[in-house]
Amino acid sequence: MQPCAKRFCVGSPMNAAFNKQIGKKITDFIAYGATSAQSLIAAMLLGQRSLTTPIALNGNINSSYEFSHQLMEEWLGQTQEQLVAYALNVRNQILDQQVIFRGGNSECPIYMDQLFAFLLRTNAHGVIVAHNHPSGDEQPSAADQKFYEQLKAACQLMHIKLVDNLILGQVDYYSWREQEVIQTTLQAVED
Fold it and tell me: What is the predicted pLDDT for the residue at 186?
C-alpha cells in the first residue's frame, strides 16, 4: 500500500469504526496494493456520504406517521440537530424543502424570520417543520415546547397552516398534531 493511502486509512475515523464493527483494521484487509486501498476508501466515503445526504421528498403528505418514518430513514446517522421546513400547497404536496438551521448535538438555534422568509418565497399554504434529536429521544424538551407555541402563533398570524411539527428520534417520532388529536379525543370521552 502506498504510504499516503496507509496514513489516510490509519488516521481516518472510519478505521476506528471499522475496527469496532469488524474487529480488524482497514489496513488488515488491504493485501493487493494501493488500488485496493483506494477502492475501499472510496467505497467507504461514498457509503458515509449517502447516509448523510438529504433526499428531496416530493408528493403528497398523507400522514404524520408515514412522513416521519420517511424522514427518520433519510436522516439516519445525523449527528447534528437540524430543523427542516417543508413548504406545502393546498393539497399538502411538497413545494420545496429547506434546512433552516443546523445546530450542535443537543440544540439548534431557531429564528422565525428565516423560517417565514422561506415560506413566503415559496408561496406556501402550509408547512411541516421537522427536527431531529441526535440523542435518539423523540420526546420534546421545554425548549421544543416553547418553539412549538411560538411557531403556532406565528403561523396563525401569517395565515400559513401549521400541518405538523415533528421531532425525530432514532426509532420513533413525536407529532404535535397527533398529540393534539389524542388529547381532544380523550377530553371528549371524559366529558
Answer: 78
Note the pLDDT tens digit of each residue in 143-180: 999 999 999 999 999 999 999 999 999 889 999 999 88
Q: What is the side-by-side order of every strand in the sheet holding 94-102? A: 94-102, 82-88, 126-132, 161-168, 173-175
Contact 86, 125 (CB under 8 A): no
Q: Which residue in the block uniquely carries the three cell numbers 431557531? A: 110
Q: Based on the structure, what is the number of domains in the chain?
A: 2
Residue range 63-92: mean pLDDT, rounded: 90
Contact 154, 116 (CB under 8 A): yes
Judgement on whether residues 176 and 86 belong to the same structural domain of the protein? yes
In a domain, 20, yes or no: yes
Nearest to 85 by CA among 69, 94, 75, 98: 98
Q: 37 or 12: which carries more pLDDT confidence?
A: 37
- State residue 111 phi and psi, 5-degree precision: -120, 120
Is 58 a domain residue? no
